[in-house]
Amino acid sequence: MTTMREVADRAGVSIATVSFVLNDTKPVTPATRERIETAMAELGFRRNAMARALASRRSHLLALAYPALEHKLGSTGMEFVTGAAAAAREMEYHLVLWPVSNDATELGELVADGLADGVLLMEVLLDDPRIEVLQRAGLPFSLIGRTADPDALDYVDIDFDQTMTIALDHLQELGHQRIALLQEGPLQRLLQSYGPKRRTRQAFRRMTRHRGLDVVVLDCPPTVGGGRQAVTRLVAEHPDLTAIMVQNEHAAAGVVSGLQSVGVAVPRDMSVLSFLTSPDMAMMSDPELTMLRAPGTALGDLGVRRLIDLVEAKPRPTEPAAPQLIPCELVAGETTAAAPSR
Amino acid sequence: MTTMREVADRAGVSIATVSFVLNDTKPVTPATRERIETAMAELGFRRNAMARALASRRSHLLALAYPALEHKLGSTGMEFVTGAAAAAREMEYHLVLWPVSNDATELGELVADGLADGVLLMEVLLDDPRIEVLQRAGLPFSLIGRTADPDALDYVDIDFDQTMTIALDHLQELGHQRIALLQEGPLQRLLQSYGPKRRTRQAFRRMTRHRGLDVVVLDCPPTVGGGRQAVTRLVAEHPDLTAIMVQNEHAAAGVVSGLQSVGVAVPRDMSVLSFLTSPDMAMMSDPELTMLRAPGTALGDLGVRRLIDLVEAKPRPTEPAAPQLIPCELVAGETTAAAPSR
């Protein structure tokens, strides 16, 4: 392994100067820094991040625990991951991918290794076994998403009520009174208490009742075929529906093509609004879906910054910071229009 | 910070025994290990992964450099990342996400930090500026993908020739003689030398010439609308085409719906074969696409294992290991069938 002395000799400076550059302990002229860094590169000197980590008692590694097995992270999920990784880099931390099941055992093993300064949880369940593992380990952690009772936790999440308000306002302004909510189901055992589905359904039922709207709520598999079949039955059984809110991005394109295949024109006869998705998925439908865009990048970014606040807080806060909720943004596509007059 | 003595006292064992558990240096009875690990958890003792890394001169961190900005990593790209992260975990390494541009500057800064034992490059360009940065830093690295002249590099990649052979055999067995290749384009400046597009096009031209097939090669934007428009023009200008190979997964669903909208039934009148994609994307089309499935998980896994071999090799090998190429797998969907007899 190359030593600091070798770097110093090659750069024609003192070891102390090399150390100033390595540890940013004192200002060094750009020219000198340039000479030293060139010498390091030429000698293959490896700045000892580990030693610095040991000194600071911090690894500057943040673990992103994501259950890749239970839930495919498609384009929409990838926006959360990319937002988190970019924020970590900007804050001079590194995001480590921990592909672990929602089941807590694997996470426990990784936490015991003590490598990460903190953990960011994604795909949070209403009753998430991972929380207790992290609490017992005493490791700082934040959630993107939340449990059924999250008051004691540090979390950021989608503002489902605000998002539903935006969605219903949009449809009501267009004159829609009879609206269906089509979600993903049946869910695998582990995901049965998946928060976003439950919260969206509850907000939909509560708000539509309050607004005096007629509603239907149903599930279908997360496939284009599933969406086609579901919507074909739906329009047969509920001929007076004028709008469908789809929280099932893999089925949404099938909802649109299924409607068209049974002679229901989108959006002339039926409006389709894709709830909680990303542009990539909206573009997979023809015509392109009007959507409530998931704030993936923003939540990934926010989750990491809050986790870093926790990691660096001295002393460790006894209360979590106030949660931050971000609504989805309405992005106009070509699948919503004025309700047909009957 | 909790000390080993505190852990030993609480667990009622000697410091040496705690150290055996920490460093796996000597066998310890499950019961004792359990007591010690409970004591660590209760005291919030953090096994010092940093100290061990320093001792072993290895961080056990592998960096995955992926240019999230240039290229959206959708479901297909995510399979590479997940396969790599899972293999790293199995080998007791950790995969760190480095979202850096194909442009080399950012990568240089990260490499200089010396945190990672090695780097895995994805989305490799035929002339990739990141290679020189890694070579100058003397850091072990492997590629998933390859440059125009990869002989001196350690890489795994898709076997484009073998994949094209499988694709053309499939279409020829069905009697197709006039075949189009629809790829993604125009590409952003940085991606203009993106390997997979060039290699696929070259293999397609070479092999179809050799087999005496009539071909058309064209590009369209990576959107459903782009696929629709391109295919509408295509069938108007080339009415005798019977099959379209699509290497543009975001346009593929539009190719199918576009054909149907102009009265060309899929697969009865026209076969559509999606080249280099994943089940998630194949399912976004209706009917579901027959595809050449990208070996994402396998290549992610293989890339990481080869990188770890490099990292742990003593002495550092002077020659790269033989490259490994994996073909895509033909997965039957509902969009290819016997060529119509004219």
UniProtKB/TrEMBL annotation, chains A, B:
Residues 2-56 form the HTH lacI-type domain. This is DNA-binding transcriptional regulator, LacI/PurR family. PROSITE patterns: HTH_LACI_1, HTH_LACI_2. Gene3D superfamilies: 3.40.50.2300, lambda repressor-like DNA-binding domains. One of its GO terms (molecular function) is transcription cis-regulatory region binding. It comes from the Bacteria. Keywords: DNA-binding, Transcription, Transcription regulation. InterPro entries: HTH_LacI, LacI/GalR-like_sensor, Lambda_DNA-bd_dom_sf, Peripla_BP_I. It comes from Microlunatus soli.
